[in-house]
Amino acid sequence: MNYEYLAKFLEEQKTKVHIFNDLSRAITKFGIKVNKKVILMIDEVDKSSNKQLFLSFLGMIRNKYLL
Q1: Mean pLDDT of the chain, nearest integer
Q2: Nearest CA to 60 among 11, 10, 19?
Q3: Nearest to 30 by CA among 66, 63, 64
Q4: C-alpha span between 64 and 50 (Å, rounded)
Q5: Which residues, 6 or more positions from 23, have their beta carbon under 8 angstroms from its beta carbon?
Q6: Quick check: 31 and 52 in contact, CB under 8 A?
Q7: HEC string of the chain?
Q8: Angle value at C-alpha 12, between 36 and 1, nearest 5 degrees
Q9: Could you give the dihedral angle defined by the CA atoms of residues 19, 13, 61 and 49, in that order, rounded to the nearest 10 degrees?
Q10: How far apart (Å, rounded) are the C-alpha atoms in residues 54 and 32?
Q11: What is the pLDDT of residue 13?
């Protein structure tokens, strides 16, 4: 696995993500490129001032997992 290629891909995607749909697409593309199971670790949730935004994010991730 070429980790430098994946790191570059993520850096490129970072500039393209502006809304949840963009983030969802970037995560899907990453999963396709990796072609392996991906573990996502989330930290600093307790410092988030927008709980609804975080719940929306979790919902998006859950939907991806179920698909």
Answers
A1: 89
A2: 19
A3: 64
A4: 22
A5: 17, 57, 60
A6: no
A7: CCHHHHHHHHHHHHCCCCCHHHHHHHHHHHHHHHCCCCCCCCCCHHHCCCHHHHHHHHHHHHHHHHC
A8: 30
A9: -50
A10: 24
A11: 94
Rounded to an integer, what distance in angstroms lies between the CA atom of residue 24 and that of residue 22? 5
| Across 30-59, average pLDDT | 85
pTM > 0.85:
no
Structure-block tokens of residue 48: 């988030």
């989330």: which residue's tokens?
A: 42
Amino acid at site 40: L
